[in-house]
## 1
Amino acid sequence: MNKFEFLIIGGGPAAITICKNLAGKKRIAVIRPEDHSMIYCAMPYVIEGILEFKKTLKKDELVTDTGATLIRDFVMNVDFDNKIVFTKAEKEYQYENLIIASGAEAILPHIEGIRLDGVMTMKTEEDLREIIKRVEGGVRQAVVVGAGAIGIELAQALNATGLETHLVDIFDTILPNMMDPDMIIPVQEKLGNAGVKLHLDERVARLLGDSYVTGVEFDNGKRVELEPKSLVVFAVGMKPSVDFLRESALAIGKTGIIVDEYMRTNIEGVYAVGDCCEFTSAISGEVALGKLATNAVPMARLLAKNILGQNRQYDGFYNGAATKVSDYFVGSTGLTERAAKERGFDYVVGKAKMTTAFPIMPFAKEIEIKLLVDSTSEMIIGGQVVSGEPATDKVDQITMAMQYDIPIRRMAQMSYSSQPYQSFFPANNLLVQAAENIISKLDQ
Ligand SMILES: Cc1cc2nc3c(=O)[nH]c(=O)nc-3n(C[C@H](O)[C@H](O)[C@H](O)COP(=O)(O)OP(=O)(O)OC[C@H]3O[C@@H](n4cnc5c(N)ncnc54)[C@H](O)[C@@H]3O)c2cc1C
């Protein structure tokens, strides 16, 4: 039986990060079932025709060039007492240390009609191939359920290919877990203007049809009628891929494998990283949703560095995320107002609106920022950005302020740079102005 110093279950970004960081230093094997690892984030842009399919497929060399052994198989069971992994191909592998990086899979709700032809999710290479096949095969209508980042990106992609596209969410604004209504409503209107038919504040109760899906019915009886062979894609969240571990002694919470700040599970020599884990909010300490590569990769890097002798600790998840809606780049981090209220925070909001270049420059675009600050500690607990230019740098600056405990009064004194192409006039800075706005309210 083959034995490995580190056996990794899964071939996504978390697994690849570990291989890269431990390259040549440990005897590693990666077990994953797919022909290719994928850049999932880019899937909508293949549908939209911006990217070639093959560009989203990661090369096996990302793993094998690190010296790791790549095994194409699926783990069915783990004997944690004897440190053996059993696979679908009826192979057994022994390990000294096990790293579970089995990721997450898209949720399909248990509602009537969910097994009808045309009803899908979007996570795997097969999902993407199937959606493209159906689009190229002449599908004319699509319903996307879930107006989070994946749902929005998919709906826009389908709409751009000419399909009549409906987007449904139980909340009354899009991106409900990322953005507050005051920031997102103007953006949402653009999505509607682009032709996406929004059904907000609606809950899908059942899907209609005999063999093909021919409609979506909401719990108030309203319907979206569809011609046969239409698409209904659920983008309503992810659940951890841990079913194969359920019968074991491994501690698994509601949203994934329970790990400590070193990525250790309750079983010695067994670690877990990425979307398969349950993670907590660095702000509220509660279990946090939002499975993202920008959380999976840092968790994996931390574990790899610690395996090499460092002593890093995971801070928790800040939930920094971004997407693109119409011509707007949208991003957020930390808590929205709704989330802050639900958690009992007493907070103050500050906003600033400027331009991405000197406003006298012909290409300057609008950018708006919103910060939430806890009234007692005066620390930032959330931020949102809507911009005509990419927003991730601004989102990350806010996350950094939260992560490294920069009080809002210090942020108001932030030293910044300015140049006609790249920022507002030197006279002001977005974060500084939003901070001053909050301080004036705190001091009232
Ligand atoms: C359409 C889409 C867009 C996205 N956009 C973004 C974005 O813009 N930004 C961002 O940060 N994140 C984005 N994400 C999320 C991001 O892709 C995930 O957070 C990330 O892939 C998680 O990495 P992971 O390695 O933990 O798990 P995964 O990437 O899910 O990989 C898990 C691996 O484990 C394998 N596996 C599972 N069970 C077993 C088993 N029993 N045996 C062997 N192998 C197993 C799987 O087959 C897979 O290879 C997006 C996701 C999707 C679907």
## 2
Amino acid sequence: MHNIDIEVVEMTLDVMKYVINRITKTSPELGKPKKEEELKALVGDTITSKGIGGEKAFQLFRDVLVKATVPIDHPRNLAFVPASPTRAAIMFDLITSASSIHGAYWMEGAGGIFCENEAMHWLVSLTGMPKGAFGVFTSGGTAANLSALVAARENWRQNPENNDLKGIIITSVGAHSSVKAMAKVMDTEIILVPSEERLHADELKKLFTELPVDKQRRVFSIVATAGTTNAGIIDDLDGVADFCKDKNLWFHVDGAYGGGALLADSVRHLFNGIEKADSITIDPHKWLFSPYDCGAVLYRNPEIAKVAHSQEGSYLEIFKDEGAHGFNPTDYQIQLTRRLRGMPLWFSLAMHGIDKYKWAVECGISLAITAGELITEDDYVELVREPSLSCVLFRRKGWTPEDYRNWTYENHRKGFALVTPTKWKQGDSFETVARFCFINPDTTKKDIADILATMH
Ligand SMILES: Cc1ncc(COP(=O)(O)O)c(C=O)c1O
């Protein structure tokens, strides 16, 4: 298995051929899931005592299994937050694996961690955080949010009076489900400002002031969203930052989806105040065109994160020795052994330069504006709200939730598009509506028009 023989050579050539073919396709087949029993019937037993051989296993993947997946980079995949990794980043993801580098400690990973840190310095510069701010790449936004909020909670617990208290996070209904889920992981209470629209400091102040005093003193962090996943809304970051400063609360900004738009001159002003955050989440695997999985967490004061996350162990001591001489990414987030998942971003940035990234992010914003115009001109549909960042919420006049569901399945079944409905909260009620989220610069105006035509 660890020998280099003809089977390994042939397998390698097959893999390279597949990769070249896949990354040069601009419109890959929009696959569909199958039931597990159906897949099993098609591929049979794949794990056997003697192995089925690389050729056979690869053929099953290429001819059957990959067809039961939906490519995230299909230009008419506008569901959830899609993605569109650059070809350079994908190729460098292969190199990241091939190089077998341990990304936890400088002692083992210096050259690779250097690449990640180059990309991280650039990310920090986009936010305008002060000198000394820095961060690390994580497996995604969920892990970044968790890492940041654990740092916040541990920092709060530096005050011994808070040691036995259950902490509270305040955010809004628009916050991503991962913030609520990670609060559960941390056994922390979460209080939501009830509006899905932009979170204003005034609403936050009102909610906070109305809390009983014993609850007020258990609040340790406010989470604002810089680009809600559902609608692309950026909270009042400046106002929330000032509120946090006034109350001595940790200010976390979740820009997992929207953070890429810090690059876009057309919307940069909407992020004003982000530079005052104590921590920020940005997912390069969303709007910075990295392959999965790559999130990032940035800290105003990384030393606080180190106190919270640095792991102790007799076999780990050598890595922290003077001999290691460098930055240890493991100390700033929840994971010990880690892939150098920032390397593909670094390579692609180094190859293409920042201007091309700017252009590609602006494409997503322009596509949302174009979609807004097409929707306004179309008698069958109407905007639910103005497009925000690269998200567009719109309704098909007269449709029920079931109509939206059937429409999604029909377009997917035909292999034409994946566009999914969502719910939009107004007051206490939720309306089912359609949603576009644009990331892929290869999506065209015609793609949007053709999708809208399927609603007629
Ligand atoms: C705003 C926001 N935060 C957090 C997340 C979670 O990120 P991940 O899925 O990378 O863990 C998402 C994912 O869509 C998101 O949009």
## 3
Amino acid sequence: MAGFLLAAIMILLGSSSSSSSSSSGSSAVLEPLFQYIHGHQNEFVQRLGEWVAIQSDSSDPAMWREVKRLLNVTAQKIQEMGGRVEFADVGTQQLASGETVALPPVLLADFERDARKPTLCIYGHVDVQPAKKEDGWVTDPYNLTEVNGNLYGRGATDNKGPVLAWLHAVEAYQATKQELPVNLKFIIEGMEETGSDGLEELTRQRNESFFSDVDYIVISDNVWVSRRPALTYGTRGSTYFFVEVKGVNQDLHSGVWGGCYQEPMSDLIALLDSLIDHSGKILVPGLNEAVAPLTEEERKLYENIHFDVEEVKKEMGINHFLQDTKEGILMARWRYPSLSIHGIEGAFSDPGSKTVIPRRVIGKFSIRQVPNMEPAVVERQVKEHLQQVFTKRKSPNSLAVTTTVGAKPWVADLKDPQYVAGRKAVKAGLRNFIVTIIINLLISVFISTTK
Ligand SMILES: *[C@@H]1O[C@H](CO)[C@@H](O)[C@H](O)[C@H]1NC(C)=O
Ligand SMILES: *[C@@H]1O[C@H](CO)[C@@H](O)[C@H](O)[C@H]1NC(C)=O
Ligand SMILES: *[C@@H]1O[C@H](CO)[C@@H](O)[C@H](O)[C@H]1NC(C)=O
Ligand SMILES: [Zn+2]
């Protein structure tokens, strides 16, 4: 908790380096802030506990009331600190039952503006994924619990803790009568865990109003690669593929019909198998050629990243990675494309030995994409490749390939002032911590299951 909070404060300070007005970074500002934080540590953790206790599970429309309740609580906290809030309507969703319900609104907030200061907009979300004790939680997921100096609770890191850290950072500035070095805006939603319905449309609609004066957006909603603090400077994009192979009109019995016709499942297995080899290489022609070449500067970045391969192997029960080095593994996860096969709809997957021949199967896989791959180009390459493999099989069945989601990859410039501020923030926060007795709280907020 305090780790986030200190980092938040340092980012605020760092962001002001371009404005001339404040004594940015000086210990005259920092000392009282740090003292305030240390003095209010218990209160901050208690508030996080109150937030975690609100079961804001966005995957279940029946729980959206709780999502809205927490958005209200968030808005109230911002208002108490002098911020202006607005609940932006993002439309409705039709449920499986046919009923149409209003989505939880998106909370937009801002504070008094000083034209001389840069404006920072902070994104966060207050919803969570479902969590039940039976899922493997050692403690009650909605009861924030400290175990060996770590705090466990659903949403504690993702994303309630970070959102609260920002609010507490503002509180610390105000309580110690320090001038905030930046203008602040917040965009807080309650549907992140189910795909942020309506958010993109809202940001488009407000591009010339709410977002028009925003210089930087900060997203503090990601995991660290190790127990060391980390800044995310890019994420891979993703396209999801559905490969449908259709044969006869009904499922058939292998004892009666097996052997006399081409089964859709064999076609599908061949198609899926043509996508990737045993070394993890994607076999779709042309796809790897778009990948931005690795620069020397970028290669060096990976050398300093802390990632204990042996420890991770043990933790995950993996005895062999496809790459031999730490750098190789991380690059495979972050800066090269990957292809994962997720499932086959229509396949027999229950226990036991049913002798069915499925009439229609849909293979599902996705490709994680990196700069400079274009989702539309990838889609075309994959479709052409699958069609070619299928044609070679001279199958009488029909093939249809469709896609959803075409999130583009992005990578940020590490020399951007915001990253420079972020780096400074993490380092200073860390230093300050190490000299205080709450060192054990440094890495305090963890959830015991990942989303
Ligand atoms: C949230 O606050 C609004 C008023 O701002 C109120 O109408 C609504 O009932 C509240 N929702 C919940 C779930 O508390
Ligand atoms: C939360 O857990 C603590 C023990 O860790 C227990 O004393 C407390 O009653 C629990 N609270 C709720 C609301 O279940
Ligand atoms: C905002 O969106 C409108 C409509 O899509 C577009 O015409 C305009 O160029 C956008 N403005 C900015 C600042 O991006
Ligand atoms: Zn999140």
## 4
Amino acid sequence: MDLINISEFDSSHDLLLPPFMSHIDVDKSVHRHEERHRKIREQLPRQPNYSMRSELKRLKTHWAQDPLSGCSPKELASAGFYKTGLENSCQCFCCGLVLCRLSISPTPLERHKKFNPSCAFIQGKDAGNIPIYDIRVQPKEIDPIDVKVSMENEQTRLQSFTCWPVYASIKPCELAETGFFFTGTGKMVKIDVKMDGAKYRTILEENLLESAKDLRLGQKFVFQQENDPKHKAKSTMEWVTNKRIQELEWPSQSPVLNPIENLWKELKTAVHKRSPSNLTELELFAKEVWARISVFRCTKLIETYHKRLAAVIEEKGGATKY
Ligand SMILES: [Zn+2]
């Protein structure tokens, strides 16, 4: 999309001059203005400016520079535009489109749509906009993805970033190129012997802190496990205490409270769909599907947690729809 060589003059609206101005050469004048506008656009950076994600911050730029502007500052700010400081121009924080004319009609939003319909903000995507009166829009939950290729493929890794926030300073292509993919879950481990207390502790030792590190949780995470005898073995409890891991107190026999059950179900369905024909495939598919459960799916489960809790209390510990 060429955002430099655009004309903000619309012949049907702008070129009708009253008779006393008939001596003005309209075409020449418009051309002169367009040239000036083009020079302004060329001087401004063309990438998104996420420091202007806040509508209020954008509004303040209009108030500061031009409190009596012919164009409504509120309309400009809510259409994504902040004042650049170059003459009267203002720019979209998301796509970098520059408007140089303060015409009331068409509105800034209409002009934004006209000149760059592909702007993520205009398309209603999560472009990081922070509206004045609303809390941030929650990212849409993505559908479970049918995993066809492993994460060894750069293109597949890139696809894992579907819901990556556009305002993050590092770009998905840079991350995918260097081997990263976007994930919401910790490590999944294959257990090939009978699980007992000692094996469970080894699994924790080898994976829990590493998962916390991978997910960038720092020291602030709370560990949740059910009251299985293996989980509650003395040696396991000692290990948890020694590592200063904060553990969540957990009621007995309450799988409905545990969000992991939802993820297990999704995992089973997705792996089953791919019909693994041997144990190696089963492990591979399970790990792939697990790795691609999005961070937003996990967030969603946590967000709805209070409803789940209320339902259990309501049913006095009996069956709920969850
Ligand atoms: Zn835009």
